[in-house]
Amino acid sequence: MDATEADTPEHVTDRLRSDIVLGALRPGEWLRQSDLQDRYGCTRSAARSALTRLTVDRIVEHAPNRGFRVAQPSIEVRSEITEVRLTLETLAAGQVVDNAGAADISAIRSAAQAFDAGVDVLPFQQMRRLNHAFHRVFYSPLRNHTLYGLINELRERDLPNDWSNWSTSAKVRQSSSDHLDMVAALVARDTQRLCSIVRSHLTNWTEMY
User: Fold this and answer.
1) Which residues on neighbouring strands pair with residue 60, listed in sequence order?
2) Is 140 helix (H, G, I), strand (E, B) or coil?
3) Distance (Å, whole) CA 141 – CA 207
4) What pLDDT was estimated at residue 80?
5) Among 174, 109, 190, 95, which residue's Cα sits nearest to residue 141?
6) SS3 (DSSP) at 156
7) CA 115 – CA 87 distance, rounded (Å)
8) What is the model's pLDDT at position 162?
């Protein structure tokens, strides 16, 4: 990639989105344009464009007279996001069971095993990356691309606020156990069991409130 490509608003937006989703930038952290210029080697215009685009996606929020920061939705908003995710992802789970072929299942199993192998070994951000990869590949058998896009969009909105889910090693291990159970239910073509695991996986964070 040459310097011109690296400086485009699209590329800066993708890099900033990734840093937020994967936990390199924490919820509530202020995002100064000058810092982003240094971080990504981009122009002020590209940094501003990235912030504006991610504000529209509600991954970043703008505080009048103060600037931009990583979004930090309230418990009420997180609950609303979870409610919608439950509807979409339980619907999607049934379609994954119907559509997934041998190659899909192999890729999903590999992603779950990669996450499991990293528990208690890899740093937080790498585990976040593996977790994100698992969920994206899990729903990849969907033929409804709009549904797939909405699921990923809502997960990205919720992920920056997901730090507390992994506050202990036990919680990371629970996530891994859920992933492996999802694979087992998929292999068994057990839609009811898979939907039950998905519901539990999505609502674990509510137990802290």
Assistant:
1) 70
2) coil
3) 31
4) 94
5) 95
6) helix
7) 25
8) 63
Euclidean distance between CA atoms 48 and 32, whole angstroms:
9
Q: Which residues of 24-45 are buried (b: 16+ CB within 10 A; e: fewer)?
A: ebebeeebebeebbebbebeee
Q: Give Cβ neighbours of residue 45 (< 8 Å, ≥ 6 apart).
A: 9
Q: Nearest-CA neighbor of 119 among 162, 180, 160?
A: 180
- Residues forming a β-bridge with 70: 60
| Domain architecture of the chain: domains with CATH | 3-70 (1.10.10.10), 75-208 (1.20.120.530)
CA angle 7, 136, 87 (to 5 degrees): 120
pLDDT number for residue 72: 85
Query: pLDDT by residue (tens digit) across 102-125?
Result: 999 999 999 999 999 999 999 888
Q: What parts of the chain have a pLDDT lower than 70?
A: 1-6, 160-165, 167, 208-209
d(CA 56, CA 13): 12
* Confidence at residue 1, expressed as pLDDT on a 0 to 100 scale: 47
Dihedral pair phi/psi, residue 195, rounded to 5°? -60, -35
Residue 68 pairs in a beta bridge with 31, 62
Task: Return the C-alpha torsion angle 199, 201, 72, 115, nearest 10.
Answer: -150
